[in-house]
């Protein structure tokens, strides 16, 4: 049997720092759009519906 092999040393804090790249930025943009787009479309759709209803009532 082989003797117990110790684990490699853990990364130093400098090496373990998270460094975002362009993929993380794209993921952040997609997440922001997925959170902000539905309420924005709901507000714009409601506004368009109100304008259409008011223009129909004023005729």
Task: Kindly describe this structure.
Keywords: Membrane, Transmembrane, Transmembrane helix. This protein is mainly α and 59 residues long. The protein is rod-shaped, with a radius of gyration of 27 Å. It has 2 helices and no strands. The termini are far apart. The model has no long low-confidence stretch (mean pLDDT 85). 68% of the residues lie in helices and 0% in strands.
Tell me, briefly, the overall form.
rod-shaped
The description of the largest β-sheet is: none
The rounded Rg comes to 27 Å
Query: What is the N-to-C order of secondary-structure elements (H for helix, E for strand)?
Result: HH
* Helix/sheet category: mainly alpha
Average pLDDT over all residues: 85
Number of distinct helices: 2
| Oligomer type | single chain
Tell me the helix content. Answer: 55-70%
Number-wise, the strands total 0
C-alpha termini separation: 93 Å
Q: Low-confidence parts lasting 5 or more residues at pLDDT below 50?
A: none
| Strand fraction | under 5%
Features:
transmembrane, mainly alpha, membrane, 59 residues
């Amino acid at each position: 049997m082989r003797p117990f092999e110790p684990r490699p040393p853990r990364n130093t804090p400098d090496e373990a720092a998270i460094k975002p790249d362009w993929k993380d930025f794209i993921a952040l943009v997609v997440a922001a759009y997925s959170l902000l787009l539905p309420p924005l479309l709901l507000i714009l759709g409601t506004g368009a519906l109100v304008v259409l209803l008011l223009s129909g009532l004023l005729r």
